[in-house]
Amino acid sequence: MVANIPAFVESTARNRAPLVGGWGAWAAAGALLSYGPNVNAMVARAASHVDKILKGANPAELPIEQPTKFDLIVNLRAAKALGLNMSEAFLLRADQVIE
């Protein structure tokens, strides 16, 4: 899926359809917006688990964790290309705005 993000973005842009993705890479690639878990935070937590396992912890005894940080990223270039106006209130809630 990740390898095909550019193709999804190009296809939806060509058809003038808004695209919403599940994490930041989508908006960075040109989707209208993305809302989902912060992948960098998830990788850091996974690395912590790997470290514990390499130090002898039993994987079955490690807690299952769910994401706790979610990011809303808005791509104003994509909004402009679609002729959409984003309210100031909505943009203020975004974690990142791509201009």
Explain this structure to me?
- By secondary structure, this protein is of the alpha/beta class.
- It has one domain (2-98).
- It has 5 helices and 4 strands.
- It has helices spanning 5-14, 24-29, 39-54, 76-81, 88-93, and strands spanning 20-21, 33-37, 70-75, 96-98.
- The chain has a 4-stranded mixed sheet.
- Helix 2 links the parallel strand 1 and strand 2 (33-37).
- It is elongated, with a radius of gyration of 17 Å.
- It starts with a helix and ends with a strand.
- The model has no long low-confidence stretch (mean pLDDT 95).
Structural class assignment: alpha/beta
Helix content: 40-55%
Element-level helix/strand string: HEHEHEHHE
Strand content: 15-25%
| Number of helical regions | 5
Uncertain runs: none
How many strands, what sense, and barrel or not for the largest sheet?
4 strands, mixed
Overall average residue pLDDT: 95
Oligomer: single chain
Distance between the termini: 25 Å
How is this structure best summarized?
This protein is an alpha/beta fold and 99 residues long.
